[in-house]
Fold this protein.
Amino acid sequence: MAKKGGEACLMFVIITLLLNCRMLDAEEEEVELLLSFKSSINDPFQYLSNWNPSSTFCNWKGITCNNSSHIMAIDLSGKNISAKLSSSIFQLPHIQTINLSTNKLSGLIPRDLFSSINSSLRFLNLSNNNFTGSIPRGSISSLETLDLSNNMLSGEIPDEIGSFSNIKYLDLGGNVLSGNIPLSITNISSLEFLTLASNQLVGLIPPELGQMKSLKWIYLGYNNLSGEIPKEIGDLALLNHLDLVYNNLSGSIPSSLGNLSNLQYLFLYQNKLEGRIPDSIFSLSKLISLDLSDNSLSGEIPEVINQLQNLEILQLFSNKFTGKIPDALSFLPHLQVVQLWSNNFSGVIPGELGLRNNLTVIDFSTNSLTGSIPWGLCSTGNLFKLILFSNSLQGEIPKSLSACKSLQRVRLQDNKLSGELPPEFTKLPLVYFLDVSGNNFSGRIDSRKWEMTSIQMLNLARNRFYGSLPDSFGSDRLENLDLSENRFSGGIPDRFGSFSELMQLKLNGNQLSGEIPDELSSCKKLVNLDLSRNQLTGQIPPILSEMPVLSQLDLSENQLSGEIPKNLGKLESLVELNISHNHFGGRLPSTGAFLAINASAVAGNLLCGGDSSNGLPPCRRVSNPSWWFYVVSIVGALVILSLAVYGFIWIRGQKRLELKRVENQDGIWELQIFDPKVSKSIRIEDILLSKKEENVISRGKKGVSYKGKSNINGMPFMVKEINDVKSIPPKFWPEIGNVQHPNIVRLLGICRSDKAAYMVYDFVTQAQYLSDLLPNLSWERRGKIALGIAKALRFLHCYCSPSVHVRYLSPEKMIVDEKGEPRLRIYLPELLCEDTKFLFSSAYVAPESRECKEITGKSDMYGFGLLLFILLTGKSPIDPEFGVHENMVEWARYCYSDSHLDTWIDPIIKGHVSLHQNQNQMVEIMNLGLHCTNTDPTARPSAKDALQTLQSAFSRTSCVTTFNFN
């Protein structure tokens, strides 16, 4: 017995040792697989620094073990790791969860991923990386979540996708997948969440989707799907979210969608849908957001819409709806955003609208509405956007709106409104945009105290206001002031010169008198000044010629007199000038804007001189016989003096404009400086001496940038090397050097020889490239950069004549100065036109420009949209691991359709702000970026509209997202 007992004990020990050995072997295998994966990747933040054999692998970062000390989960999301994906971690025998999302992994997904992977895997997330190639074939029966979204996967969706029999969450969005939606996908009866959005899928939506009874979410937007919406979708009783936006779907909305009793979000905008909205849609009592905008829907909106008691957002704009706006909207207690603009609605705005709602945005513009503005629109005190322009509204502005302290953007222009502006209405603290032009408003505006401390754009034009102009409007941020075509009298207040941010001032078509105040010259950012059709007297203040960016000046139809200040013709920025129908006399200056002035712009004066194109007579000679000797003597002296002065000016002008040449061992160098004031400071020797290693500022694809310094006065400048000397045009463009704006780096000149060429720019102190700063920028600083670049584009597109196009907007062309202001660097137009190989292959150039080799303002807006994506996501369309910009746009479209910001917002931003606090702001900026990158150039906003949208978004801290540029 003792012997048998001993044998049993021995056997137990042997078995235990064998099991332990197997366990040790299994642990060693798992460690080897993990270390193999670590060795295959680049880990810049050293997140995996504790992955070493000296510590227990269950304590390694990102690793979760089960009770048996086997690896159950790996989570390395958002760790900035890069390299091609190693298959080693997929071979872990007990793994259930693998999350490698939001990194920089690239290359192909292993071909055998779904055929050799351990059958225990339930969760696989490879989203937000840079994977290319096709989706691997095969399937995993245990898998419940598969997320491959926001990569660059291409090809068709494999039919084997239907073999993932237990999958609940499938996200393939944000790639470049093509072909049809495979019918096999409808075999996955367990599927709850389906996203194929932002790809290049074509064909019909399979009606068999109606058999997938477990579906709760369907995202198929931003593709090229066509045909009708299958009525079978109405059989999905659990469906919560249906998104089919930005496709080519046609036909009518199936009434069967009214069977989706659990539906909360219905997005069908940007399609080709026609017909009426089925009444059944209005029975979806759980609906929170309904967006059918940008289609060709018609008919009336029935009163049964009052059944949508949970509705918060109603977007029906840009359709063909008719009839009246239903009174039932007033009885939707949760309604916040209602946008019905650009339809054919008529009748009155519901009188009780706002009394029972929580309205934040109202846009009924561009319809045929009549009646008055309801008094209760801001009853809850949250309304910030009121857009009612281009209707036939009558009556006064309700006094209740004067108490709406939340208002920020008000557009009531082009109606038939009347009465006075309520006194308290001009004290609203947050209104930054107010346009009431084109109405019948009257009364004085100078007898009240204006305290609109946030106002940036104020337009009271084409009304019946009278009296004097107020000295102030209570804001030091005013950029655009239009008081034209009223009945204002008295003088132009000297205090207008304190509007330091003013870019446009229009006072034309009034009864203003007195002289033009010298103080207006203090408005250093003023681009457009229109004082025409008044009763102004006196002379043109010579000091106006010192305004640095004045581009358009209209003084016509006044009673101004005297001679034209000669320096006015030397104002380099001035391109449009009208001085007609005044009492000016003397000789017309023969410089600057006067050289090509139209006859109509000088008519109705006593001027003489110039060429035949302006219609002015030649200046008369005095011929009195009794004084002929004295006259001849005086004239002769004057002629000699004039010739001397003219010769001096001509020689000086030639020195300014001619190419300076210097010959050295490298050949003949030519220098053209565009600014005469700078030409005395910078010499060719200064530029060539700056080319030293210690002076290097940056290195780019187009050449190296250096810091230079004048040996004459120490003036600093920046020298940009141009690799392709042949691309420099023989004709230089001094006009581009006249572009001056706070957000633009001025191009001072160009220097070249047969072997090398350089562009010379203003030197910006403590400047850093945006591409270098981006990883450390907060959301507030990114917003400031977006606004600054938008202002630069607006100036180049709207206030330069001819318009200047940037060609391509990349972070390498943008710097940020010591005050945090962005500065855009522009190039010579002909330089970029010649360098077509680089320009039209750039990821920042719009698709239509790559095809037709033509750059327009809309092309610039495409690049601006990409810039917004970069600021939001931290990604770059020219990153070799990401791919070309088309993929980024498609990816961004998917991001916008995804309500989870944390999957696409730059992780750096998350460390600075609360996404909850700023999420609507970020979504609105993403929406603007999508509009800017629209494939149809005509659908992109102008730089002016984009700037207004940005200002609207950043002027508030919390709001509900809007979707237009009103």
Q: What stands out?
A: The longest strand covers residues 667-673.
